[in-house]
Specification:
- The chain is built from seven helices and five strands.
- It has 168 residues and is of the alpha/beta class.
- The chain has one domain: Rossmann fold (3-Layer(aba) Sandwich), CATH 3.40.50.150.
- α3 packs across α4.
- The longest helix is centred in the N-terminal third of the chain and has 16 residues.
């Protein structure tokens, strides 16, 4: 097994195990406080914009960024993906509880199961530090982004993640 495959396998195991309690552990919610936080992070990258018709969040976790932005009116059609089936399930379930229709798919960010240029906005929140090969992942994000679309990476908890996100 390659080092990259081992890292991905560990990410799946950990995040599947955490998925049922992740929101409680990290005080994640979908209330006005978190909507304001997510929108503030988003507006740092995109100061003025209307609704993005087709949006993908990669490394979605339980849906914090995507679902709060959807509630804020930024997201039209919502898609989420994560390498962890547990996290994709949690994101879709959280969306359902909020009355949002979210299309979830389990996928590796280095090989997304989407057509080229299929999204107006691609999001990532606090996920870069999990990537064994950030360059390959960022190239894949650009591939699924339509020409003129926006790529927004926010909330990185490490300087390395911030540096990589700034290059996106």
């Amino acid at each position: 097994m390659t080092a990259s495959a081992a890292i991905k396998q560990a990410q799946v195991a950990y995040h599947d195990w955490e998925s049922a309690h992740y929101d409680d552990k990290w005080s994640i919610s979908f209330d006005d406080r978190c909507i304001d936080y997510a929108l503030g992070r988003f507006r740092q990258a995109v100061p003025a914009a209307g609704v993005f018709d087709r949006v993908l969040e990669v490394g979605c976790g339980t849906g914090f960024f995507l679902l709060n932005l959807a509630q804020a009116g930024v997201v039209g059609e919502a898609h989420c993906t994560d390498i962890s089936p547990g996290m994709v399930g949690a994101c879709v379930a959280n969306g359902r509880r909020l009355g949002l229709d979210v299309h979830g798919r389990v996928a590796d960010v280095e090989a997304l199961p989407y057509d080229d240029a299929g999204f107006d906005l691609v999001l990532g929140h606090a996920f870069v530090h999990h990537l064994p090969d950030p360059d390959t992942a960022l190239a894949e994000l650009r591939r699924v982004l339509r020409p003129g679309g926006r790529l927004v990476i926010a909330g990185e908890p490490t300087r390395t993640g911030d540096r990589i996100a700034a290059q996106a």
